[in-house]
């Protein structure tokens, strides 16, 4: 490598810190968007009034990252997370292609001023995501099985707490208690610290 050999570890560290930084910020914005649609607790929807940054969601992401870093095998954790992220992207692109092709009832029509793109690029992305998810399933089934269990658990939580036909959402006692807990967390976290 020559002269730059001592710089390689430093450059790798800088790249990893940048990747972690962008991942944390993107995930906190996802949490902010989900909290705005009431799919996560509303205290995650709090933003700093000066900078419009979701500091509570960012702090939550940082705490999760620190907790996960104490697990025994970081390589396995990276494999689980990458599988779940690519599976999530696969489901998202499938949903977007379905909306573009069929525009199901109940959804607002696609804006006439939206940028029109060919469906070639979403299909290319779909093929890449299918390959990455399928490759993980065939090469390391234990990793993909745990990732699929995580996604299955999230689906169960969705049907229990968010689905409009959930029996919990018909219970007035559950709604009263969950709204009380949610409003207390929001009142405590948002104005006092962020």
Automatic annotation (TrEMBL):
The UniProt GO MF terms for this protein read: L-amino acid transmembrane transporter activity
Q: Name one GO cellular component term.
A: membrane
Listed A to Z, the keywords are:
Membrane, Transmembrane, Transmembrane helix
Out of the domains of life, which is the source? Eukaryota
Pfam families registered for this protein in UniProt: AA_permease_2
Q: Where in the cell is it found?
A: Membrane
Q: Which InterPro entries does this chain map to? A: AA/rel_permease1 (IPR002293), AminoAcid_Transporter (IPR050598)
How is this protein positioned relative to the membrane? Answer: Multi-pass membrane protein
Q: TM spans, by residue?
A: 6-32, 53-71, 77-99, 119-138, 144-163
Q: Which PANTHER family match?
A: AMINO ACID TRANSPORTER (PTHR11785), AMINO ACID TRANSPORTER PROTEIN JHI-21 (PTHR11785:SF528)
- Indicate what this protein is called per its UniProt record: Amino acid permease/ SLC12A domain-containing protein
From which source organism is this entry? Answer: Meloidogyne incognita (Southern root-knot nematode worm)
């Amino acid at each position: 490598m020559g002269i730059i050999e001592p710089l390689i570890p430093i450059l790798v560290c800088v790249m990893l810190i940048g990747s972690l930084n962008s991942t944390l910020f993107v995930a906190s914005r996802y949490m902010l968007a989900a909290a705005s649609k009431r799919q996560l607790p509303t205290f995650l929807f709090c933003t700093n009034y000066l900078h419009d940054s979701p500091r509570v969601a960012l702090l939550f992401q940082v705490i999760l990252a620190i907790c996960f870093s104490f697990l025994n095998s970081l390589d396995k954790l990276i494999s689980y997370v990458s599988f779940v992220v690519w599976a999530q992207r696969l489901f998202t692109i499938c949903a977007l292609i379905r909306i573009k092709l069929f525009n199901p009832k109940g959804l607002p029509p696609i804006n006439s001023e939206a940028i029109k793109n060919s469906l070639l690029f979403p299909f290319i992305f779909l093929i890449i995501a299918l390959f990455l998810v399928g490759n993980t399933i065939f090469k390391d089934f234990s990793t993909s099985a745990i990732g699929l269990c995580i996604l299955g658990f999230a689906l169960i939580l969705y049907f229990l707490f968010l689905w409009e036909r959930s029996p919990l959402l018909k219970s007035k006692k559950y709604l009263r208690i969950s709204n009380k807990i949610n409003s207390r967390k929001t009142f405590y976290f948002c104005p006092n610290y962020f």
